[in-house]
Amino acid sequence: MHRVLGDRRAILILLGPALLVYTLIMLVPMVWSLGYSFTKGNSIEGFTGSGLDNFTRLLDDPAVHEALWFTLKYAVIVTAGQVVAGYLLALLYVFFLKKASALVRTLVFFPVILPTVAVGLLFQKLFQVAPSPAPSTPSSTPSAWSPSTSSATPAAPSGS
What we know:
- With 160 residues, this protein is mainly alpha-helical.
- It has helices at 2-6, 8-36, 53-60, 62-95, 101-126, and strands spanning 39-42, 46-49.
């Protein structure tokens, strides 16, 4: 393991494609959008440079201050609520529901497993092969050449 991680060429071969895809899909659009934030206009009329005017308008807008304050309060309240609810559920499990651990495990992991099962069933139905109208078994009427007869050669004509 140390030998592979010490080899710069191996690191480049292993990480290069992932970093290239990440750069093209994530970083390039982010930098492009940052560049657009310093302009004014649209794609039809064209763009003109506006410097930091967009940012000064953003910071002077009272609706932005209100939205940021609401987001901060929401994040603190929801985070604290989730921690307290998780702690209370853990205490409930440890002290009262220990004998029903299979039921608790099922209730906890059911929402995790359900989407995977639903997607699997969806793809199973999506890629299901429709039954063919032609029968897939050999004909029920035996022919002279079918293996269901006693010999594989046709019968000799009667009259000779």
